[in-house]
Design a protein that fits this description.
3-stranded antiparallel beta sheet; two-stranded antiparallel ribbon
Length: about 70
């Protein structure tokens, strides 16, 4: 899964969550459109075609990322 904003680092993602930014997720390819809205998921970034340099476990509530590990 990716975040709608193309964060270059996990630290930038965490900072956005802490500042109250509304962060949503999406999945590309044939599996897109069935993203979870509640619970936990794994995120990666930055977006393809750049090499992924960070991975995170995110907690979702009502379609928004509320915390990141």
């Amino acid at each position: 899964m990716y975040t709608t904003t193309n964060f270059k680092s996990k630290a930038a993602l965490k900072r956005a969550i802490k500042e109250g930014e509304a962060v949503r997720i999406f999945q590309i390819g044939p599996f897109g459109g069935n993203e979870p809205t509640d619970g936990y998921t794994t995120l990666e970034g930055p977006h393809y075609p750049a090499p992924h340099t960070w991975y995170a476990e995110a907690q979702l509530k009502d379609g928004l990322v509320v915390s990141v590990k």
